[in-house]
Write a structure and sequence with these properties.
169 residues; alpha/beta; Aconitase, domain 4; 7 strands
Length: 169
């Protein structure tokens, strides 16, 4: 799975309150959540100005804070195909995989990539390429099962597929 897009760069410790502010948690409509994604971050204009396919790139500890699934859902439904970070908060990591949002840890890529750069992410090989600068970086490669979950669109779809394959559905 190869993903290509323009980078919106964020700093360290972007927590779930910055990703989707609590004042919008009175809805579970993913498209409504997407309209407010990153609204309380260092790029409050993100939800209104990003283009479908733009990539979020951030420093350390992305997704820290509460365990709300609203955060990766808002990102996914905003049309962000992948999040690249130096590191992810553990609960955000799992929530992202569960809803089928690809995330990639690539600290050197984060350090050397600038806002607006064009990047390409090869999830299966664990590679991030900065096409603007002509550089390639190693990223943490997912185990086969996590790749299958992402390809299925999330844990629920993966489980449904497995049940059907095994004759249970």
């Amino acid at each position: 799975m190869i993903i290509r897009g323009r980078v919106w760069k964020f700093g360290d410790n972007v927590d779930t309150d910055q990703i989707i502010p609590a004042r919008y948690l009175n809805t579970s409509d993913p498209y409504e959540l997407a309209q407010h994604v990153m609204e309380d971050s260092e790029h409050p204009e993100f939800a209104k100005q990003h283009q479908q396919g733009d990539i979020i790139l951030a420093g350390r500890n992305f997704g820290s804070g509460s365990s709300r699934e609203h955060a990766p859902i808002a990102i996914k439904y905003a049309g962000v195909p992948v999040v690249i970070s130096a590191s992810f908060a553990r609960i955000f990591f799992r929530n992202a995989i569960n809803i089928g949002l690809p995330i990639v840890e690539a600290p050197q890529a984060v350090e050397e990539t600038d806002h607006g750069d064009e990047v390409e992410v090869d999830l299966e090989k664990g590679v991030v390429r900065n096409l603007t600068k002509g550089k390639e970086y190693h990223a943490t490669k997912f185990p086969e099962t996590l790749m299958e979950i992402l390809k299925a669109g999330g844990l629920m779809e993966y489980a449904k597929g497995r049940l059907k394959k095994d004759g249970w559905a």
